[in-house]
Design brief:
Blueprint: H1 11-24, H2 37-44, H3 48-60, E1 64-67, E2 71-74, H4 92-113, H5 116-134, H6 140-152, H7 157-168, H8 173-182, H9 185-203, H10 207-233
Antiparallel strand pairs: 1-2
Helix pairs in contact: 1-3, 2-3, 3-8, 4-6, 4-9, 4-10, 5-6, 5-9, 6-7, 8-10, 9-10
């Protein structure tokens, strides 16, 4: 069965749908290894990150298994208990790109508009991240507080609710599964260092530097997600 070129809307879901259909029809038999990510991307006519998100969705659904250093294999679902719900929500890698656009600007606004109380709230959240990371606790809640404190400094309710929606989406199964491949004390320490650069620019009231620091943070987060997944599933 030939693969069909997909439309840009909700790419990872369309890719997952096609792969799900191929698996159901036996094109990829139980125990078979799926084609490499780069090959699937070429056949679908999409980017590798979109294929990556689709494979993660199928993994969460229990349809495939990622074997470290080997590849992605089709599972025998008849031997699994229950029927996993098909994954919905935004793709993690696409979400980070959207956050880069929006939060780069909210950081710039914070550098211009933040009051003393706003800067203190951002700094407290960063301190909480450091304290939790030092105890070996993944500081996701403190990270959320950091980004929310920045957007709240803008005084714009629409931007605040938008960033809240971005952060809430990290609680979904796709993000949790992808995070499981790379979230370590080392990765969080890198994020903390990047946050320090954002805070320093905001305190210095330098909107250009704040925007650049947030862009760099999101770019590096995207890289951490992508590299960890490739390492986990590459044969």
């Amino acid at each position: 069965m030939p693969l069909q070129t997909v439309e840009p809307q909700r790419l990872y879901r369309q890719i997952a749908d096609q792969l799900r259909t191929l698996i159901a029809k036996g094109e990829f038999a139980t125990g078979a290894r799926l084609p490499a990510e780069r090959d699937l991307a070429k056949q679908f006519g999409v980017s590798r990150p979109s294929v990556r998100e689709a494979l993660i969705a199928l993994e969460v659904e229990g349809r495939v298994e990622v074997r470290t250093g080997s590849g992605v294999y089709v599972l025998d679902r008849s031997k699994r208990s229950g029927t996993p719900v098909e994954v919905m929500g935004w793709g993690p890698l696409e979400l980070i790109r959207a956050r880069r656009v929006v939060e780069g600007e909210t950081a710039a606004l914070a550098a211009t508009l933040a009051k003393r109380a706003d800067r203190d709230a951002i700094a407290r959240a960063l301190d909480d991240m450091k304290e939790l990371a030092a105890r070996g606790v993944m500081p996701l809640d403190a990270d959320r507080a950091f980004h929310l404190a920045i957007v709240r400094a803008s005084g714009n309710a629409v931007l605040t609710e938008t960033v809240q929606g971005f952060l809430d989406s990290r609680l979904g199964p796709l993000f949790k599964r992808l995070g499981g491949y790379f979230e370590t004390g080392k990765s969080w320490q890198s994020a903390i260092t990047e946050h320090e650069a954002v805070l320093a620019a905001i305190v210095a009231r330098d909107p250009d530097a704040a925007r650049m620091a947030m862009h760099e943070h999101m770019d590096k987060a995207h890289q951490r997600f992508s590299v960890s997944w490739r390492r986990a599933h590459a044969p």
